[in-house]
Specification:
Blueprint lengths: L2 E2 H8 L2 E3 L5 E2 L1 E2 L9 E5 L15 E5 L11 E5 L2 H15 L5 E2 L4 E2 L4 E2 L4 E2 L4 E2 L4 E2 L4 E2 L4 E2 L4 E2 L4 E2 L4 E2 L4 E2 L4 E2 L4 E2 L6 E4 L2 E4 L5 E4 L4 E2 L4 E2 L6 E4 L4 E2 L4 E2 L4 E2 L4 E2 L4 E2 L4 E2 L4 E2 L4 E2 L4 E2 L4 E2 L4 E2 L8 E3 L4 E2 H12 L1 H24 L1
Parallel strand pairs: 4-5, 5-6, 6-7, 8-11, 9-12, 10-13, 11-14, 12-15, 13-16, 14-17, 15-18, 16-19, 17-20, 18-21, 19-24, 20-25, 21-26, 24-27, 25-28, 26-29, 27-30, 28-31, 29-32, 30-33, 31-34, 32-35, 33-36, 34-37, 35-38, 37-39
Antiparallel strand pairs: 1-3, 2-7, 22-23, 39-40
Length: 347
């Protein structure tokens, strides 16, 4: 399908600079632009590419002022990255969707399957499962007994949802993710560790996306809850009885210990580690590899272990790099001071 600059600008409410009849049929990064492609510029680091790109149309922010002639037709918008996301969503929704149940899939006779559902080969759908309309269960996915899945969800291959868990509407579970595995609960005894049964469930609310090989454990009792709009990257661990606030996002390899409450609209960088039984407030930003041993107030922007304000952290790192020299200087000063003390005693 082809779209003109005028059609695109109308959809994203943009302003055209150039040929409104320029057409595109694909997407490309600005540095890899080809004729017939639409690209975008939102990061100033990539500005130089706009003057040589072969892309037919480029989305730019309204404050962009070119320093040299640009061959591509520009569409100016409030936020080029957000506008690109809208176009990509529209493109994805226009692709044909698979429907129907493969004869190679196992679907329990007691399962309730909605309209326009796709269940791929070798998928497993357990007893008393409920699957909403327009949901896709891809090959080799496993949906345990009593699970409820909402409308317009996508469960990719090798994703596993354990028994009785709840998945809301418009959720995406990527390959290898596990929803509702047992929480890490063991009681020490003289003979070893005795397993504590994990009888709770996991609940994912609407518009949640779980990355590949990410695990959200079931609760010991009650529920581990991931609230609406949360986006989790790959290889993340959410432990039993955690609660993740709405619209919080986490980069890869974040680990959260059990019974911790995370607020709304938080942003965690890669490899952040958070202790159990604490509370993280709303709109907390944690830099990559931060280690969090205690609770954090709302609107904090922190980094490090234990986390501190960003400016203090980088000042501390500057001092840390000079610690060997500082230590030698202190050693010399201490030696000189001791010699002075000896001289004073002699006098």
């Amino acid at each position: 399908m082809e779209f003109t600059a005028k059609q695109i600008a109308t959809f994203i409410q943009g302003e055209i600079v150039g040929d409104e009849n320029a057409t595109v049929h694909t997407f490309a990064k600005i540095e890899e632009g080809i004729p017939g492609a639409i690209s975008f510029l939102s990061n100033p680091k990539y500005t130089s590419f706009i003057y040589d790109t072969q892309a037919s149309i480029v989305l730019v922010n309204k404050d962009f002022v070119p320093e040299h002639p640009v061959k591509a037709t520009l569409i100016k918008v409030d936020n080029a990255y957000e506008s690109l996301a809208k176009l990509l969503t529209l493109y994805e929704q226009s692709l044909p969707k698979q429907t129907g149940v493969s004869p190679q899939a196992f679907v329990s006779p007691t399962a309730r399957i909605g309209k326009n559902v796709y269940i791929g080969p070798f998928a497993f759908i357990g007893e008393q499962v409920e699957i909403g309309d327009n949901t896709a269960i891809h090959p080799l996915a496993s949906i345990g007994n009593g699970v409820k899945i909402g409308d317009h969800c996508t469960i990719y291959s090798h994703a596993t949802v354990y028994h009785d868990c709840r998945i809301g509407n418009h959720c995406t579970l990527h390959s290898g993710c596990v929803i509702g595995a047992d929480g890490f609960g063991f009681a020490p005894t003289p003979e070893g560790y005795e397993k504590i049964p994990q009888i709770g469930i996991t609940i994912l609310e609407d518009n949640v996306e779980i990355g590949a090989n990410t695990c959200v454990d079931r609760a010991t009792m009650g529920a581990t809850i991931v609230h609406a709009g949360v986006k989790l990257d790959n290889l993340i661990q959410i432990a039993h009885n955690d609660e993740i606030g709405s619209h919080t996002v986490m980069a890869a390899q974040v680990g959260i210990a059990g019974s911790t409450k995370i607020g709304e609209w938080c942003m965690f960088g890669g490899q952040v580690g958070i202790a159990g039984h604490i509370h993280i407030g709303d709109k907390v930003n944690l830099g990559a590899q931060s280690g969090v041993p205690g609770s954090i107030k709302d609107n904090s922007v922190l980094i490090g272990t234990p986390p501190m304000e960003t400016k203090k952290y980088f000042r501390s790192q500057a001092v840390f790099r000079e610690l060997p020299e500082i230590n030698m200087e202190v050693y010399k000063l201490r030696k000189e001071l001791n010699e002075l003390k000896k001289l004073i005693k002699k006098e």
